[in-house]
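TICKET: design request
STATUS: open
ATTACHED STRUCTURE:
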């Protein structure tokens, strides 16, 4: 069965068992579980779910819990776990993208949302010489990814790191293939040609002004391969999505 057909089958089963309602509870366990205040309110007041209705929980670590509502309290909703699916839709590949935050916070949040929907494991905001934004509110960014995880019916929540200077980041050990997306077409190979499916991947995405030549050389000295992402000149957030989709597509 192909990957897309299998995913469609699992999502159909998800809809049947949970009514398309997924809630995020980091400490979810088997037995009886208490929803947090926000999730309780959303469940009982926004969705107007009642006792006996089916929902699903995820801990963001790959566990999907089939549940029924026991006490539909808007502040402390209690549910009973009736089944557990481990490593739900686990991807065969590992992907970490380190990317310079865009000047527009909305555009960076759009990248996080779509990357979460496609499939990614870790994201690191990168501070570079041409960075348009030098900080990132990781608490806010995690909320964006939680919403995207729930909307796309996934059981894995990507890890978002604090902003890291590029020099410190490229010197950090990584077991897998390492790439730096660069606009110089004459000195790069395409990511789809350089990446070998099945390998762990780390991709650096620069700001609108691209990486400086010094940053590219520094990355190359630390084992990063300069790569291109196609013939078009892409915005930072678009380049991040292209890299994310390419790695996932090559692993199908």
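STATUS: resolved
RESOLUTION: sequence designed for all positions
ATTACHED SEQUENCE:
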């Amino acid at each position: 069965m192909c990957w897309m057909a299998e995913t469609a089958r699992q999502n159909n089963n998800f809809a049947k068992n949970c009514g398309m309602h997924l809630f995020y509870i980091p400490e979810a366990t088997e037995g009886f579980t208490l929803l947090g205040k926000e999730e309780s309110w959303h469940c009982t007041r926004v969705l107007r779910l009642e006792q006996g209705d089916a929902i699903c929980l995820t801990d963001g670590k790959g566990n999907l819990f089939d549940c029924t509502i026991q006490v539909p309290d808007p502040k402390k909703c209690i549910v009973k776990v009736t089944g557990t699916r481990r490593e739900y839709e686990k991807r065969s590949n590992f992907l970490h993208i380190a990317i310079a935050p865009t000047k527009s916070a909305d555009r960076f949040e759009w990248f996080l949302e779509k990357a979460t929907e496609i499939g990614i494991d870790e994201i690191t905001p990168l501070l570079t010489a041409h960075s348009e934004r030098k900080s990132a509110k990781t608490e806010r960014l995690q909320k964006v990814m939680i919403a995207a995880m729930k909307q796309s019916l996934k059981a894995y929540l990507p890890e978002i790191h604090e902003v890291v200077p590029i020099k410190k980041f490229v010197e950090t050990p990584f077991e897998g293939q390492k790439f730096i997306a660069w606009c110089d077409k004459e000195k790069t190979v395409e990511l789809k040609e350089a990446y070998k499916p099945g390998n762990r991947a780390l991709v650096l995405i620069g700001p609108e002004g691209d990486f400086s030549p010094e940053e590219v050389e520094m990355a190359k000295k630390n084992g990063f391969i300069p790569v291109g992402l196609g013939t078009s000149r892409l915005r930072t957030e678009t380049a991040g999505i292209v890299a994310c989709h390419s790695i996932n597509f090559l692993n199908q």
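CLOSING REMARK: The chain has two domains: 3-85, 95-250. The two ends are 11 Å apart (CA to CA).
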